[in-house]
Design brief:
With about 425 residues, the protein is an alpha/beta fold. It is built from seven helices and 20 strands. The chain has an eight-stranded parallel barrel. The radius of gyration is 25 Å and the shape is elongated.
Length: about 425
């Protein structure tokens, strides 16, 4: 089970599940088994009826519509970096970005080049999507033996169907069937998502202060949040999956924040002043932005930690400790970085791209695979301590390189 606070997922539901209309006194969902859930969503404005006043609870819901609803529940609102490439999904389709977002975080995978956005979503397909969104640990499928049609549940969906049955999110029919290949209705979709959004609380956003811990401290267990804000020091985040952003605020000061086995799908933003230390152990981050008012942030990776992209907008020390992870893959010093800012590196780094004027890049230990300066990056100073290596430097402007380190291959492209 995930968080304990309600996430409003009404945005887009009216568009996805019908155009606005006033419900008639004799609504077509009255007496329906899902009347309670549909009434709740109608009252909250998360679901709207069709122009004729109907809700059509037993009408099938398409794969694209269901994917869009899951994105809302998971808090996937930012534009996806991964773009869907399916032969049956034109870029002009309303569902293109929704499917791209779900693809990026692994909720969907497609069918060998197609995604079938207009097809009804089968019950076992819905189970897989929700299981992936919830990051369920799949295990025994013994619970499926209760269904008379258990042999019709596809092998590729058994573990996920069992996970939702065990969690209480899905049930079978009164006649003993699960009906894995049956199209999911609008009512079934609302009931399923209602369970994880209203009954269980949905994905919450939280703010924590100093000397606190957040997450799961049981081996193998993971907790899920939308956005997390850290406003103090001596904070431990452990066994978390954050679907939105992680923000480290002013209150950290010169203190320390530890992340152990954390995955952040959105951005990690480091703010405030002082010289904080952020320890990243077995942690994966898509994008980190260091934008402090003053001071220098220290980021240390160890274990399987991987920071895919880091934007330096204020002083920072980056260190790669012991481990098998990729560490810091792509480091960017953008044009807005103030002159004289020092970026210190210890470890084996991927690509470092410099667009800023006048920064100081100090490689104290280790290596840089590719160092590139843009034509606008004037006044750059590169300091290479003894024993350090830059495999390839692509210099598009005059760059001062000092120290006993080595540049194995230099390509100079100064203006003629």
């Amino acid at each position: 089970m995930i968080g304990r606070k309600l996430v409003t997922v009404g945005l887009g539901l009216g568009l996805l599940l019908g155009s606005a209309g006033h419900m008639s006194a004799a609504a077509d969902y009255e007496g329906h088994w899902a009347q309670k859930q549909m009434s709740r969503w109608l009252e909250k404005g998360w679901l709207k009826g069709f122009a004729d006043g109907s809700v059509r609870p037993d009408q099938a819901i398409t794969r694209a519509e269901f994917i869009a609803l899951i994105n809302q529940l998971a808090g996937l609102t930012a534009e996806s970096k991964v773009k869907a490439d399916f032969s049956d999904l034109p870029k002009t389709s309303w569902a293109y970005e929704e499917i791209s977002k779900a693809l990026e975080v692994g909720i969907i995978k497609g069918y060998g080049g197609t995604i079938r956005p207009g097809d009804p979503v089968m019950r076992q397909e819905a189970a897989i999507m929700v299981s992936r969104m919830m990051y369920f640990e799949t295990g025994s499928t013994e619970v499926l033996s209760m269904f008379s049609d258990k042999d019709q549940i596809a092998g590729w969906s058994e573990a996920d169907v069992a996970a939702l049955i065990n969690d209480g999110g899905m049930k079978g029919y009164p006649d003993g069937r699960f009906a894995p290949e049956q199209a999911m209705t609008r009512a079934e979709a609302i009931a399923l998502l209602d369970y994880y959004n209203v009954t269980s609380g949905g994905l919450q956003s939280v703010t924590i202060s100093h000397s606190e811990g957040l997450g799961s401290f049981e081996p193998g267990a993971v907790k899920y949040y939308n956005n997390v804000t850290v406003s103090g020091y001596d904070v431990l985040l452990q066994n978390l999956k954050i679907f939105g952003d992680l923000v480290l605020e002013e209150g950290i000061g010169n203190g320390e924040v530890n992340l152990d086995s954390v995955e952040v799908l959105g951005k990690v933003i480091i703010q405030g002043s002082g010289d904080p230390s952020v320890q990243l152990k077995n942690t994966t981050m898509n994008q980190v932005i260091v934008q402090k008012n003053s001071g220098t942030a220290r980021l240390v990776t160890e274990g399987t930690a991987w920071v895919k992209a880091l934007s330096v907008q204020s002083g920072v020390n980056l260190e790669e400790g012991e481990g098998t992870g990729d560490g810091f893959t792509d480091i960017d010093l953008p044009s807005g970085l103030a002159a004289g800012i020092v970026v210190t590196l210890n470890g084996n780094f991927g690509d470092v791209n410099i667009e800023a004027k006048g920064p100081v890049l100090h490689l104290q230990k280790g290596s840089i695979r590719t160092l590139k300066t843009a034509a606008t990056a004037t006044g750059v100073k590169i300091e290479l301590d003894e024993g350090t290596t830059v495999t390839q430097a692509i210099l598009n402007t005059s760059t001062k390189v000092t120290g006993a380190g080595k540049v194995q291959d230099a390509i100079v492209k100064e203006d003629e």
